[in-house]
Structures are given as structure tokens and as C-alpha cells.
Amino acid sequence: MISYSIIGSKVWKSVADVASQEKINKEDISFLDFQVLNWHRSIPESLKFIHPDSGRHVDPPARVLHRLQVVLYLRANQMRILIYRPVLHTATTIMENLEFAHVVVKVAKDTIRILTYINQTSDIYRSQQTMYNYFLISALAVLFLAVAHAPAEFSQQSRDEFYMALELVRGLSSNSYVSKRLWKTIKTLKEVGPRLGLAVRHDDTSDAHSSAAVAMAGLAGHPVDEMALFSNGRNGTNLDTPHGMASDLTTLFEAAGGAFNLNGFGGSSTDMPTNGEYVNAFGQENDELARIMRDLF
User: Fold this and answer.
1) Which of 126, 164, 177 is nearest to 249 (CA)?
2) Which of 67, 69, 159, 291 is the most exposed place for a label (fewest CB within 10 A)?
3) What local confidence, expressed as pLDDT, does residue 113 receive?
4) Which stretches of the chain are DSSP H helices?
5) What does pTM read for this prediction?
6) Which residue ranges in the chain fall short of pLDDT 50?
7) What is the C-alpha to C-alpha distance for residues 294 and 145, in angstroms, rounded to an integer?
8) 16: phi > 0 → left, psi -120 to 50 → alpha, else beta; which?
9) Per-residue pLDDT tens for 147-189?
10) Could you give the CA distance from residue 189 to residue 288 in angstroms, rounded to a whole number?
11) Rounded distance, CA 236 to CA 43, Å?
12) 57 in helix, strand or coil?
């Protein structure tokens, strides 16, 4: 952990210095990532997490050891997320550094899959949610930023992991600090969403994704039923419950992934070109969305 903290101090300087993030330094990012990967390779074999996709079959380790393996693996992922995060701040930085963007999305998806796997195979996640949920919410923020700024590139490939994460969000304690921080971000996104291009399409179907559309429509200036707005279509359920947050995130994610249709491009996101022509499809070209999501990292 001393070695990890030494690397972390370098990463923190790059993350905290907002001015330095205006221009992506590919060499610095690559070198910091190299250091993190080397750190994880250097830890004792007994503390290395055996990835479920590795194909290796080993006897389950003791619970205490298994927990340490998972935490160290997720810490490496989290550090890599922090290193690559500036790439996701705008559509332009994504397209100029597309390989890096794919790396951070891949790492975030891996974090979500590991948390889901641990939740399904042991009680480690459920017994220590306070710690693990920082990793969960940070990974969720990566997927949302990527899909919002480059939906044609990331919407379809991130969908499964996004909904895996939402299933874990539903298990959050509504009184936890992480849960309250997530709700604060969702609330801000809903308030500024229409201005950023997150306008939700209206239709007559009453599916699971349509409840938060009522709130978004109201914020966009359309007349809506006031009770429906504040109940978010959930029969008076509090908006900041884990289930409510998952529902709101579902709608925001689908709105971001469908940005082309909403902005007049037509067709599905999978039909869009992947050569950078859609770089400005998502409204304003600035990092306001990134600033809103920043606290989740």
C-alpha cells in the first residue's frame, strides 16, 4: 500500500490540476498506467485476484484473503480510472484519444462485472458495501460519461454492465454517504439535462424507463402533472431511494444513448459512423457534464 500511495500521489496531482487537463498528455497517462499495472504485478501471488474470466480453476481462498485479493484488484482498477478520466470530459477529447477512452470504459466495465461476481458468489460485497460502493459508483460514472459524450461508440457495448451496476445500486442503503452523493449528482443531471442535450423522448408506453421522463419533461418546460413530477411515476415513492435512483439513471442513460435520434440524426446509435463525424452530437462541447460527475470519482 505504500507503493500504491506513492503512485497515487502522482495521479492525484494530475487529477487535481484542472488546468493540466485542458490538454491530454498521452505520455503521462501511459506512464502512470504502466506504473499501476506494474504495482499490481508486484504484489505477492497469494494476494492476486484470480479473475473469473482467466479460465484458471483454483480452490476458493479463505474469506479474509479473498477480500484482500478483491480490494487490491479493484484499487488498481480505480487508479486506472482516475488516470484516464480526463479523456472522457468532452466528445472531442474522446475522439482525439479514442484508444484511451476504450481502455477506461473497459476497466470500468471490469469493475462492475467483478463486483457483480463477488456479490453472486460470496457475502463479501454485501457485508462491506460502504467500501465497495465507491468503486461501483465511480465505474458507473465512467460509463455514463462515455455514453453521453460518444453514444455511437459506447452505448451498445456498455449497456450490459450499466444495468449490472444498477442492480447493485438498488441494494444501496438510502442513508449511506455514497448513496446521498449519487442522488445529488442525479438531481443535478435532471436539472441541467435538457440544456446539455439529455431530452427524454415521450411515447405512450408505460414501461420501466418512462417514469423519470415525466420529471425531465417538466424541467424542459412542458406541462406535466405536478404529483407525477415529484413522485417520479412511482406512486409517491421518495425520489432518493435506491430503486428511484436506479430508475432515474436508467432514463438518463437511455436518453444519452439515444442522443442521435433526439438531435435529428435519425436511426439507431449502432447505425452511426465511427469515424468522428458525430463528435458534436451531444449538445454543448464543454466539460460541464464531467464537472457534474466529478464528485462520483
Assistant:
1) 164
2) 291
3) 97
4) 2-16, 26-42, 63-84, 91-96, 98-121, 124-127, 129-149, 151-169, 177-196, 211-219, 226-231, 242-257, 259-262, 288-293
5) 0.76
6) 201-237, 259-284
7) 10
8) alpha
9) 988 988 998 899 999 999 988 888 887 777 788 888 888 888 8
10) 10
11) 50
12) coil
* DSSP-based three-state secondary structure for 267: coil
Q: Tell me the three cell numbers of residue 216.
A: 425531465
Question: How many C-beta neighbours within 10 Å does residue 227 have?
Answer: 11
* pLDDT in the model for residue 114: 96
| Residue in the structure block whose three cell numbers are 462541447 | 285
Q: For residue 97, what is its C-alpha cell?
A: 484519444
Retrieve residue 61's grid coordinates: 481462498
- Give yes or no for a contact between 253 and 151, defined as CB atoms under 8 angstroms apart: no
| Residue for grid cell 406535466 | 224
Q: How many residues does the chain have?
A: 297
Question: How far lies 123's CA from each of 63, 137, 176, 243, 286, in Å?
Answer: 9, 19, 19, 21, 42
